[in-house]
Specification:
There is one protein chain. With 344 residues, the protein is of the alpha+beta class. 26% of the residues lie in helices and 23% in strands. The strands form two sheets. It has a nine-stranded mixed sheet. Strand 1, helix 1 and strand 2 form a beta-alpha-beta unit. Helix 2 runs antiparallel to helix 3 and helix 3 packs antiparallel against helix 4.
């Protein structure tokens, strides 16, 4: 598929995998391609020689564990999505030993339209212990002392994962095969026409727009999204950083593809996921009269989206309560109170 825009993601070259400028990437607040960041990984070198050698290299670390694997018919052409009636997904998932997944991929390497096989977001240390000893990034910035990144592996054949967002920031490392990311800033959500909150192909709502053949009558705002889009084409050994909440469609182009990614958040671990707050807001706010919703928007702007200090600035310290900075104890108490109220 041709890219939807000629606008390329900003690039950096010559960055050492042991000295990634993590804070600079976060502060820039935009996607960045780091060319050749992991070109020296043994997994990358094996994949450059052949898909078979990359498969054998991964199998050398296999510990017998099952993984969550997805399987689809050849007719889906690797597009992990919904069925035609939007009632279910167009693939099935099941726990499968990782070696069986890799052997299935090996059997279909030479087919132009093979069955779709995919392993997504699987913790590396759980199923391939030892792989990271020689295939890893250094996270020596103090900000990682409290929130160590989650290292995951993604394995499959040709695939297309529709545009979606991730709550954490993300560094993706293209290890085997070529990938394309089409990225959009968070404010383009309305122009990407998200699908249902449940079910979803991968846990987050995905864009209903077919980028290969957009229907501008049905999705007119997608023209504006194209104007805000950028494209990152990755070769084996390249990496891509993108901040939390950026929408991204991911295409894997080869018969065997492997990606390693690192998710992390600078927020304390005791904080809840905002998606829970969104679903609670659907329950508590969305269907109220417009005048009430407008008033509640002011309340949320004051207490949540505005400066954290403002709601407590005029109060003595002993009266701050939940308005003060959260810690693990306060978070536990607040969660217990919410559960009690929700279970009324």
């Amino acid at each position: 598929m041709q890219p939807i825009t000629d606008r390329k993601t900003r690039e950096l070259a010559g960055i050492d995998a042991a000295r990634v400028p993590w804070r600079e990437l976060l502060e820039a607040g935009e996607p960045v391609v780091l060319r050749g960041l992991v070109k020296g990984w043994p997994l990358v070198e094996a994949g450059r020689r052949s898909a078979v050698e990359a498969i054998d290299y991964l199998l050398s670390f296999f510990n017998g564990r099952t993984v969550g694997a997805y399987f689809g018919a050849p007719e889906m052409r690797g597009r992990w999505f919904y069925d035609d009636e939007l009632r279910d997904l167009n693939f099935e998932s099941r726990r499968t030993p990782l070696d069986e997944v890799l052997e299935a991929l090996r059997r279909h390497l030479d087919e132009q339209q093979p069955p779709a096989v995919y392993v997504g977001s699987t913790t590396i240390d759980a199923c391939l212990p030892g792989l990271r000893a020689a295939n890893d990034l250094a996270f020596d910035d103090p900000m990682f002392e409290r929130n160590a990144p989650l290292a995951s592996i993604w394995i499959g054949n040709r695939s297309l994962v529709s545009a979606h967002f991730d709550a954490p920031s993300n560094m993706v490392c293209c290890a085997v095969g070529r990938r394309r990311y089409t990225l959009f800033p968070p404010d383009q959500i309305v122009n990407l026409y998200p699908g249902p909150l449940d079910p979803t192909p991968g846990g987050q709502p995905v864009s209903m727009v077919n980028f290969a053949a957009p229907d501008f009558t049905r999705h007119p705002g997608f023209r504006e999204a194209i104007g805000a889009a950028q494209v990152a084409d990755l070769e084996p050994g390249d990496a891509l950083f993108y901040p939390a909440m950026w929408w991204h469609q991911v295409e894997a182009f080869d018969a065997f593809n492997v990606m390693i990614n690192y998710w992390w958040s600078t927020s304390p671990k005791f904080m809840d996921t905002p998606m829970n707050a969104l679903k609670h807001a659907l329950l508590a706010l969305r269907d109220r009269p417009e005048s009430e919703k407008a008033a509640w928007k002011h309340v949320f702007d004051y207490y949540v989206f505005g400066p954290a200090e403002r709601p407590r600035a005029h109060l003595p310290g002993h009266a701050h309560g939940e308005l003060g900075p959260l810690d693990e104890l306060k978070a536990r108490r607040l969660r217990a109170e919410l559960l009690n109220r929700l279970n009324r």
